[in-house]
Write a structure and sequence with these properties.
It is a single chain. This protein has about 350 residues and is of the alpha/beta class. The chain has 14 helices and twelve strands.
Length: about 350
């Protein structure tokens, strides 16, 4: 079978959708069931194709490639697709919280995602939470939505003997829903008691309205102990995971939330916000805070810095939780869905 894939998100420095597609395609390379299929990556020359490319050019490319099915991994796909389409939708934050998005972008996402989901043969999502949200907010029948958990990249083998610095780590794009300003304030409170602690933030600032993270860092009075970078190479990221002692991810709305699991795979316990999707994904392998209050967050971070018993509890649960997430299983299920959708 000839399978066309919208590969736009693989360009440049892949994050989110790009990393998901990268994980799936890497697993397909080693999957015996994938050897009888031909995978055709389609993408514009630029890093990100526009909606015009998706709606006008991509259908022609699909026809020219003589594809029998299309995988659209980034929320939307061509509405006049000449063959059956499977679309991946990870969350519907732009519907649930339109205030988090610029007006034009939010409107485009709401319209095209709803129409793409309606016209797709099947919809893939990454949690039961998102399945319920897609069904309720986009009006898509639950029977049409398939929950397929992603895999987790192991940045470093899980070892108890790794020497951990008193470093706090956050990795992920900076969105309003992830409460990075509250993390910065929490660290500022903690730093006054812990002169050896430092904070590492890695992620592109995509907040709306725009938050000046550098200014917030300066106001803590410990800016020399806080590093903010929009992106780092995989080798540097692995090093950060390998030496950090605590990971923090205060998202109030996610379709999944991968980076705390990557941290767990590197032996780093996480502080996360207590939400339904966090409970589904991380189970008992995390320390939960009820709200993104800087005082509560600082207390939770300090607990994971110092409390060996709490750290052991979380890391003991790591194998059981991480065992649920396999790129091989994910790739197998997506391939099965593509084949059945083309039949």
């Amino acid at each position: 079978m000839r399978i066309a894939i919208d590969g736009r998100e693989l360009h440049g420095q892949p994050t989110g959708v790009g990393r998901f597609l990268e994980g799936v395609m890497t697993a397909w390379n080693d999957l015996p069931a994938a050897r009888s299929h031909e995978f055709i990556l389609l993408a514009p020359d630029a890093r990100r194709g526009s909606s015009a490319w998706e709606q006008l050019t991509l259908p022609r490319l699909v026809r020219d490639a003589r594809a029998e099915v299309v995988f659209a991994p980034g929320y939307t796909g061509p509405l006049r697709c000449p063959v059956p389409m499977v679309v991946a939708i990870y969350d519907v934050s732009f519907v649930a919280h339109p205030e988090w998005f610029p007006w034009r972008e939010g409107m485009r996402r709401r319209l095209l995602t709803r129409l793409s989901a309606s016209r797709a043969a099947r919809v893939v999502t990454t949690s039961e939470f998102s399945r319920d949200e897609i069904g309720r907010r986009l009006g898509i029948p639950h029977a049409k939505i398939e929950v397929i958990y992603p895999g987790v990249d192991r940045m470093q083998a899980l070892r108890a003997d790794v020497r951990r610095e008193p470093a706090v780590l956050y990795v992920g794009s900076l969105f309003a829903r992830r409460h990075v300003p509250e993390l910065v304030e929490a660290f500022g409170r903690l730093a006054r008691r812990r002169p050896d602690a430092r904070l590492e933030i890695v992620g592109d600032n995509r907040t709306t309205p725009r938050v000046d993270i550098d200014r917030l860092v300066d106001r803590t009075g410990v800016a020399d102990r806080i590093a903010v970078r929009s992106w780092v190479p995989d080798g540097v990221l692995a090093q950060l995971y390998g030496t950090a002692r605590v990971f923090v991810f205060l998202s109030e709305y996610e379709g999944f939330g991968l980076t705390p699991l990557e941290a767990l795979g590197a032996g780093v316990p996480s502080v996360v916000l207590d939400t339904p999707v966090a409970r589904e994904v991380y189970a008992d392998a995390a320390l939960y805070v009820a709200q993104p209050d800087p005082a509560l967050v600082a207390e939770a971070i300090e607990r994971l810095l110092d409390d060996d018993g709490e750290r052991a509890r979380i890391l003991d649960a790591a194998g059981r939780v991480l065992g649920r997430y396999s790129w091989r299983d994910c790739a197998t299920k997506i391939l099965d869905l593509l084949v059945s959708s083309a039949s």
